[in-house]
Amino acid sequence: MSNKVLEHIAWKEGKLHLLDQRLLPQQTVYRICVSVEDVVESIREMYVRGAPAIGISAAFGMVIAAGEALEKGLNEKEIREYLVQAGEALNGSRPTAVNLKWAIEEAGHWLASNENLSPQDIYRGLEKLAINIFEEDIINNRKIGFNGSALVPQRATILTHCNAGALATGGYGTALGVIRAAVEEGKDINVLVDETRPLLQGARITAYELVRENIPAKLITDNAAGHLMSMGKVDLIVVGADQIAANGDAANKIGTYSLAVLAEYHGIPFYVAAPLSTIDLNITSGDEIIIEERSPDEVTCLNGTAVAPEGMVALNYAFDVTPAKLITAVITEKGLAEKPNREKIASLFEA
Amino acid sequence: MSNKVLEHIAWKEGKLHLLDQRLLPQQTVYRICVSVEDVVESIREMYVRGAPAIGISAAFGMVIAAGEALEKGLNEKEIREYLVQAGEALNGSRPTAVNLKWAIEEAGHWLASNENLSPQDIYRGLEKLAINIFEEDIINNRKIGFNGSALVPQRATILTHCNAGALATGGYGTALGVIRAAVEEGKDINVLVDETRPLLQGARITAYELVRENIPAKLITDNAAGHLMSMGKVDLIVVGADQIAANGDAANKIGTYSLAVLAEYHGIPFYVAAPLSTIDLNITSGDEIIIEERSPDEVTCLNGTAVAPEGMVALNYAFDVTPAKLITAVITEKGLAEKPNREKIASLFEA
Fold first, then answer.
1. Do B312 and A203 touch (CB under 8 A)?
2. Which of B211, B214, B227 to mutate against chain A (most A CBs within 10 Å)?
3. Core-most of A77, A160, A200, B27, by most CB within 10 Å?
């Protein structure tokens, strides 16, 4: 599924159209964001999810903010102040996806390096930047796919967790980009999809992408991954990332760390596929990554119905951190960081 | 919750009353089994689950079979043949829980060692045996609890998977028996409960038992266990078993193996609590254990609603095997098998 086929993010006449991914695969409903608050809520409530897709949405959120400032008739200085506040609001919508922070910083850099702008110039400049971030993301994912596919044998069963696919990005996907590229190169690929509790992005979204493209895939509970590895039924694992620290430690959907430990135990390669925009060189190591805790209701309820008894408390960490030592390679648009460490991550930015 | 408080298995006037555990915690509905076929279906469809509880139900299933034979006016020889067939039907209801096979063998042994019986003698003898298996199970679980509690520090966070509680057994529980005993001894215990996809026995049943007894507990997704271990928030893990081989390899709910690997990686003790009736000395190692595959619908649907897209295939292994080398100790009513192996398992039967 290219972004062309299913427009999960679309910028139309100053409005951001976001496919409501919470309702997939049963319903295809769009939320039309006309205010910064709409974008903040869409990110926080996970209408849109996946670090790169969140970054893209935030970039358009900044354009919408510029539009709001225009309508208010603010002058350039006031617009710049308004945009700083909008950036902070967007940044606060979710804590772990670093592409969010990155996209807002990109807007900030553009504003800082362009002075004496008319309000219209600001709007058009930010719009051009957002579209560029969107388009670049898809291009980068194709490069990630190409670079990652080189690591995939001619015949392989690949396990993935959560959704690091077209819908988590501008299009094509990171982890699913690697799988797509391998399939496009004619390799014989089978995919094992972790359902990925609590929000089931694997069962709902990754499965949706793979079924649409007729890529052979089987859904499993997260509990079954270890068993399948022990039976020799997993050749490699590839996941996305929400944030990668300067030393290569990677935050991703809760359960990723368990997979990495299991992969290590079974001698199975464990790959993290992500664009450079997911790497935050200001974060020294995984210890500094903020792990979002979400509502316990995501664990205690299914489809809005309580499964746990009344009075049962739940913990709901949305992410975990996989240390670099458990990662066989980080796959980026600039190439691989095999056995990632501080130097190898830094060198990606020099490539 | 003792068995007295919530009668999940009750034998009343020749009928087996089984709490429908599929509906917990929302509904408390009983299925009244009046035929062998009722019992077979109740085991297969998981009205009753948990290896010891399945064994107890099967023992009563044999009594019901004797009652059916009585009603048909069969003679002793015909009754014995009828009971062999009933035993085979019960045995085929689920493949992994060895207590099922064990309970039917116990009935077979009793029949083999008692000749020239009236039909009424057969009925009363099997009834006495079933009640004895039921009562012994609770007594054994208290012993398992006592033996296991000796391994629990004065203050501990204990992670458990699935439900190896009162409801999985005659009462008191195996893994939860260890937790109950530690609490009864005044230890400061917190429990982390894996929700245990696909059928959520952790979220539905273990949580239910713990909330009823005010034992401090938090529910987590199965994905969160590794993250919590990496944060040093798990002191020990205790689970039940559906079958233990002669060498100490243990089959238990899918996901148990992953926990054992994670425990090994983090240096966390990993205990399996089960009665001797769960150990099958005829099974040489875990390689011989038959792993039940259940309907893919358990993975693709939640509360009867599809979560995965149409056309998505799912694998649904109900159990996995944890090799003995990953088990710190098997906790039984006859004591511990620490670092279990063939000799230590055998010696439990000599105790």
1. yes
2. B227
3. A160
| Pair A281, A245 in one domain | yes
- Residue A4 counted as domain residue: no
Tokens 């490699």 locate to A236
* Residue B226 domain-assigned (yes or no): yes
Same domain for B272 and B308, yes or no, is yes
* Per-residue confidence band for B5, with pLDDT thresholds at 50, 70 and 90: low
Among candidates A198, A223, A314 on the partner chain, residue whose Cβ is nearest the Cβ of B258 = A223
| A205 contacts chain B (CB < 8 A) | no
- Same domain assignment for residues A60 and A185: no
Q: Alpha-carbon distance A340 to A344, whole Å? A: 6
Do the beta carbons of residue A185 and residue A149 sit within 8 Å?
yes
pLDDT of residue A351: 76
pLDDT tens digits, B66-75: 999 999 999 9
Cβ of A308 under 8 Å from any chain B Cβ? yes
Query: Shortest Cα distance from A182 to chain B (angstroms)?
Result: 20
Q: Is the pTM of this model over 0.90?
A: yes
This model of the complex carries an ipTM of: 0.95
| Total domains, chain A | 2
Instruction: Output Rg (C-alpha) for chain B, integer angstroms.
Output: 20
Which of A75, A109, A141 terminates a domain? The answer is A141
Residue that terminates a domain, selected from B99, B117, B141: B141
Residue A279 has pLDDT above 70, yes or no: yes
Whether B23 and chain A come into contact, CB under 8 Å, resolves to no
Token duo for residue B281: 């000395």
**Residue A242 falls in the annotated catalytic set:** yes
Query: At B303, is the pLDDT very low, low, confident or very high (cuts 50, 70, 90)?
Result: confident
Q: Are residues B189 and B264 in the same domain?
A: yes
Residues of chain B contacting A311 with CB distance shorter than 8 Å: 211
Q: Is residue A292 part of a domain?
A: yes
Cβ–Cβ gap B261/A261 under 8 Å: yes
Distance from CA of A195 to the nearest CA of B (A): 8
The pLDDT value recorded for residue A1 is: 37
Beta strands in chain A (DSSP E): 9-12, 15-19, 30-33, 155-160, 188-194, 217-220, 236-239, 243-245, 250-253, 270-273, 279-280, 301-302, 305-306, 313-314, 319-322, 329-332, 335-338
| The token pair that represents A335 in the structure block | 């190439």
Domain hosting residue B122, numbered range: 9-141
CB atoms within 10 A of CB A135: 14
**Pair A88, A192 in one domain:** no
Q: Which of A199, A221, A253, A310 is the best mutation test for B, with the most CBs of B within 10 A? A: A221
Is the pLDDT confidence value at A2 over 80? no
A64 belongs to a structural domain: yes
Q: Report the pLDDT averaged over residues A132-139.
A: 98
The span from the CA of B238 to the CA of B211, in Å, is 18
pLDDT at residue B293, as a whole number? 97
Residue B22 in contact with residue B206, Cβ under 8 Å? no
For residue A131, what is the domain's CATH number? 1.20.120.420
Cβ neighbourhood burial of A303 (10 Å; 0-12, 13-18, 19+): exposed
**One domain, residues A165 and A293:** yes
pLDDT digits (tens, 9 = 90+) for A216-270: 999 999 999 999 999 999 999 999 999 999 999 999 999 999 999 999 999 999 9
My answer on whether A21 and A161 are in the same domain is no
Looking at the fold, whether A134 and A158 belong to one and the same domain comes out as: no
Query: CB contact, 8 Å: B257 with chain A?
Result: yes
Find the closest chain A residue to B320 by CA distance.
A227
